[in-house]
Structure formats: C-alpha cells, structure tokens
Design a protein that fits this description.
One of its GO terms (molecular function) is 3-beta-hydroxysteroid 3-dehydrogenase (NADP+) activity. By secondary structure, the protein is an alpha/beta fold. Helix content is 43%, strand content 16%. It has a single domain, classed as Rossmann fold (3-Layer(aba) Sandwich), CATH 3.40.50.720. The chain is built from 13 helices and ten strands.
Length: 345
C-alpha cells in the first residue's frame, strides 16, 4: 500500500500519537475515533505482541485505508519489553505529541455479592456499582521482574516508558500530552506508601489507579516547563475484555437491561468502548496548558445515549505524590541497572 501523501507546505504538521492497549476495548475505539477527528495523524499502536499489533493495524486500516498507522510491540508487565519498545520508538520517531497510557489488567477478580446485597438494603448500592468499592477484590501475583503484576502493568511499565521517551516528548515546538486511563475506583483508602505495589492487599486495581492519579499530578510539576503535560481520564464502566473476566458473558447479557436503566442515574455507565473513549478524544482537541492538573476527566453517557465529558476534582495529597514519585525513581534506578544492555549509552 502506498504511503499517505505528505502535508502540503503551510499545512499543519501531522501529530504523532502513541496508544498502549490498542488491540481491543477503549484503546481500539480510541484509535478509530482519533482518525475520525484528524486523518493526518501518525498513529502508533502499542500491543503486547507482534501478532496483536499487526491485527490491530489491519483492523484500523480497513476503516481508514489512507491512514498512517505503525506498530510497536510492548508488554507493559515486562521491563525488558518496555525498554526495547522505547529504544525502538526513539530510533523511529523525532517526537511524540500524545501518549495515551491506556493498557491495563484486572486479574483474578472476585465479586462480593453479600456486600452488594447489604448495599441495596442501606442505599449504598449505586455508589458501590459506580466505584466497585466494597464489592470487588483481586488476587495479584509477582511477574518475571519480581514486581506485583497489576502495579507493573497499570502504572510502573507506563512510568518507565514515559521516562524513556522524554527526549521525544519534551522541548518540542508545541506542547506534548500524556493521557492516563484511570478509574472511578481509584481510592486513597486502597493505596499505601509503605506498600505501594499493594502486595498485602486485595484491591490492587484501585491502588494502581490511585497511584496513576498521584503520578500524573507530580509529573505536571516536574515537566510542564519542558512542554509536557499530563491528564487522567476515566472511561466509566465499559463492557470490554476486563469486565468480561469478572463475570461470565451470559451473566452480563442478562444484566444489560438493568445496566441501561442504571445509566439514567449513573452517567458513568458508558457501557461501550466508543462511549468510554469520549474523554480521551475530548482531550485530543484541547490545549494541554489550559487543563487543570487536579481534575479527572470522566467519559459520561446520559440515559438517552448522549456522550459528554465531566471534569471532577481529584483529591490527592501532593506531599504523598512527591514521596511516591521518589519511590518510583528508586525502583527505576534498580530496573535500569538490571537492564543496562537495553539502554542507549
């Protein structure tokens, strides 16, 4: 297939966009929606293996045959894979305008139906159903690097990726933007500085998403002057591979009429990946320097199906954010010493 024509003199330079977790769910819907917004972007899809990457690329090109779509293989749970991907991207690209840090896992999830029933009796069920507080737990495990798998995949792998790509993100002609997929289940009560990988608890997903919020806040303090801005978004409750692992598919299908009804009361029940990507796409159209670093942008869908974005203040202790950032730097130092052969020296 012939490469797309280069922009004419005076035409706006193409924007380079990297999306992790692009093979399905919100990530894939986001890729398609970004190309609907701007067909001139250079879209780089990051998937766990080469087969997924190429299948994703072909799927996107089927709908947008003239789009410029490249791939990179990265398993966010593997530090070696992250470092290889970053090295590959540094060699292939001159800059990055947007990085959507979207990949994530929600493994070995257990639902506490007794707690949900108690919530129905006490009037707390709607809060539980929109935040998963008190009704959802996970059993985590160590990955090949000796890190807790959820922490490594949802946060630390992305953190290392950003750090390794700073040369492409900072000091460009126009500001660059990091957009992290967080969650409404991000809760301070699930996070502890003394156990920031959440090895001892059963809410590893919520902990990793609160850690994401902390990281975004502190990165703005560190990197705004270099032209890099960071935001967090919440896609809402989306039916995707993550949610289908919580309950069998047939159960979700039985629950779907109830979930459509709940949407009239809980606007974050976006349900489809297309709707869940609303906040991600909205941020693509904003000036990053005009955004509030202490706001999470929520994808919302009304009971009648209208999509919109709702900014909500995030409450993080900035001193905790700084201390957590220092711990991430310490962990990064250990990782880079171990994988020195994958660095450009």
């Amino acid at each position: 297939m012939a490469a797309p024509a280069l922009p004419a003199v005076g035409e706006r330079m193409e924007r380079v966009v990297l999306v992790t977790g692009a093979s399905s769910g919100v990530g894939l819907a986001l890729c398609r929606r970004l190309l609907e917004e701007d067909r001139r972007i250079h879209l780089c899809v990051a998937c766990r293996n080469a087969q997924r990457s190429e299948a994703t690329r072909e799927s996107i090109l089927a709908a947008h045959p003239t789009a410029r779509v490249s791939t990179v293989e990265v398993d966010l749970a593997s530090l070696a894979s992250v470092l290889r991907a970053a090295r590959d991207l540094r060699r292939r690209l001159q800059r990055l305008d947007f990085v959507y840090l979207n990949a994530g896992i929600l493994p070995n999830t257990h639902m506490d139906f007794k707690a949900l029933w108690q919530g129905l009796l006490t009037g707390k069920a709607l809060h539980m159903l929109t935040t998963a507080e008190g009704i959802m737990t996970q059993t985590d495990r160590l990955n090949g690097d000796g890190l807790q798998e959820v922490f490594a995949t949802n946060l630390f792998g992305h953190f290392i990726l950003v750090r390794q790509l700073e040369s492409l993100l900072c000091g460009n002609e126009r500001p660059s933007q990091l957009i992290w997929t967080s969650s409404s289940s991000a809760r301070e009560s699930a996070f502890s500085l003394s156990d920031y990988q959440h090895a001892k608890g059963q809410e590893s997903y919520s902990s990793s998403k609160y850690a994401t919020d902390l990281t975004s806040v502190v990165l703005n303090k560190k990197l705004n002057k270099q032209g890099l801005y960071s935001s967090v978004v919440c896609p809402g409750l989306v039916m995707s591979n993550l949610t289908y692992r919580i309950l069998p598919v047939f159960v979700w299908k039985l629950l779907m009429p109830i979930m459509w009804l709940i949407r009239f009361f809980a606007k974050t029940y976006t349900l489809t990946p297309y709707n869940g990507a609303e906040a991600h796409v909205w941020l693509f159209k904003q000036k990053p320097e005009s955004l509030d670093a202490l706001v999470k942008y929520h994808s919302c869908t009304s009971g009648l199906g209208k999509n919109y974005v709702e900014p909500r203040k995030i409450y993080v202790d900035e001193e905790t954010a700084e201390k957590f950032y220092e711990k991430l730097l310490e962990l990064e130092k250990q990782a880079l010493e171990r994988y020195d052969d994958l660095l450009d020296n």
